[in-house]
Design goal:
- This protein has 440 residues and is of the alpha/beta class.
- Helices cover 39% and strands 20% of the residues.
- The protein is globular.
- The structure holds zinc ion.
- The site of zinc ion (ZN) has 6 residues, from loops.
């Protein structure tokens, strides 16, 4: 039993009535929040008392699509001519990098990225992993990194026929079974698929059979670039969502990532199947791709979330990129500001409600004790109706001083508490150097 009292904070609860509490307190018992309000410090004898000094106290953030394995690509330029399009980016960078990963690379690339997420105030990550030379057991290594840092994660392995037919099916099956048997909500699992353009009919049939038997949702890229749509149509005369439906893949627990080239009918199918769509604006811009019509999806009632797709582990900057991109795309300064913040703070929470058992994303009794304190004391009025302005213009640039994840202080004064950051960083430099040398 351990307890933490956070006091004297500007508490942004994001609870059902969206309460903001000046000089507010949060009391944590073990891994759950037990009270949020303006109660006297003397009410509890906490093991640890943290004075927030008027800074913003808010729920830990959620990343709905990440690729932790991509971490060692930072600063790396693939050999040869620069990629001219999406297919070439995959072939020249990502499919070479993921094939070169060994088990230690998988572990360390996840560890440093999860540490960065914690330091940026993110406490839950939904990851999509590929390491074709060492797929077996790879998700255990990522799980180890999550447990060492203390964050919650939902993991999957990217099944694809691009190296070997059905590669990764066994790893998904093994890991989903393991999570079910463990019955420990810190780590959850989905069945990972790359994208329809690299998946044959037998592989999809086998994957769907196993996932359905295990009651697992899917995590799959869709319509990220035209090539995915065109290859699927040429081979099978099916639009992407029709082909997904052929295998029973859409469901309330299934995450479709990107959806840039979905036509109106496919967006309707996302809604009628109650599936999840995750947008990753920085990644799409980085790859020179088109823009996901998220406002059209929202107006249809689709649950739209936001992820970083490996670009970074920082969520508020991603929401900022989302609204800026939508405004540029529509040439309209009135749109997408509230929607982007709402997607980050509310929709990502709703996605987690479908995947994890423990509620999170709100400072409310009974919720998972994922709480962050940002170094941000507002210098203009702050209330419930203008918090999004402070979020996207202020908190997006603020350091997170304290991160409490699952009731544990894991970041204190901006640094990891239980992890030797310098040692991990030095090991990552060495590993990345060796990894880059392997890629030709
Ligand atoms: Zn992705």
């Amino acid at each position: 039993m351990s307890s933490i009292l956070i006091k004297n904070g500007f508490v942004v609860t994001l609870n059902e009535s969206n309460e903001m509490l000046e000089k507010g307190s949060v009391f944590i018992q073990d891994d759950k929040i037990t009270e949020v309000g303006n109660f006297p410090d003397s009410k509890y004898q906490a093991d640890r008392v943290i004075d927030a000094h008027g800074n913003i106290v808010m729920p830990g953030l959620i990343n709905a699509h990440h690729h932790l394995y991509s971490t060692f690509a930072r600063g790396f330029s693939p050999p040869g001519e620069p990629a001219r399009n999406f297919q070439e980016i995959l072939e020249r960078l990502w499919w070479k990098l993921d094939l070169a990963l060994d088990p230690d690379d998988v572990y360390y690339s996840a560890l440093i990225a999860v540490m960065h997420a914690a330091r940026a105030g993110c406490t839950t990550i939904i990851d999509h992993h590929a390491s074709p030379a060492c797929s077996e057991g790879s998700l255990d290594l990522i799980e180890k990194a999550f447990r060492e840092v203390g964050l919650s994660g939902c993991l999957c392995y990217e099944v694809s026929d691009r190296n070997e037919k059905g590669e990764g099916i066994a790893e998904n099956e093994r890991f989903i079974r393991k999570c079910k048997e463990a019955d420990d909500d810190q780590i959850a699992a989905l069945f990972g698929l790359h994208a329809l353009m690299t998946l044959s009919t037998p592989t999809l049939e086998k994957s769907a059979d196993i996932a359905h038997q295990l009651g697992a949702g899917f995590h799959v890229h869709a319509a990220e670039a035209e090539v995915d749509v065109n290859v699927t149509f040429e081979r099978y005369q099916r639009r992407l969502m029709d082909r997904f439906l052929d295998f029973g893949i859409p469901s309330p627990q299934s995450i479709f990532v990107h959806g840039i080239h979905f036509e109106a009918r496919e967006m309707d199918l996302l809604k009628t199947t109650d599936s999840i769509l995750v947008n990753n604006p920085e990644s799409n811009m980085n790859n020179g791709l088109s823009v996901t019509p998220i406002l059209e999806m929202l107006s249809r009632g689709v649950l739209v979330g936001i992820g970083t797709d490996g670009m970074s582990s920082h969520m508020i900057s991603q929401a900022r990129a989302m609204y800026l991109l939508q405004r540029t795309y529509r040439r309209d300064p009135r749109v997408a500001f509230g929607e982007a913040a709402d997607i980050l703070l509310n929709n990502n929470r709703k996605i987690c409600e479908r995947i994890f058992k423990e509620p999170r994303g709100r400072l409310a009794p009974g919720h998972l004790a994922d709480v962050i304190i940002a170094d941000y004391v507002p210098f203009t009025p702050l209330a419930a109706d203008n918090f999004y302005g402070h979020l996207l213009f202020g908190l997006s640039f603020a350091r997170v001083g304290t991160t409490v994840a699952r009731g544990r202080v894991i970041v204190d004064n901006g640094h990891m508490v239980d992890i030797d950051e310098e040692k991990v960083r030095a090991t990552c430099v060495e590993r990345a150097k060796k990894l880059w040398a392997k890629i030709h």
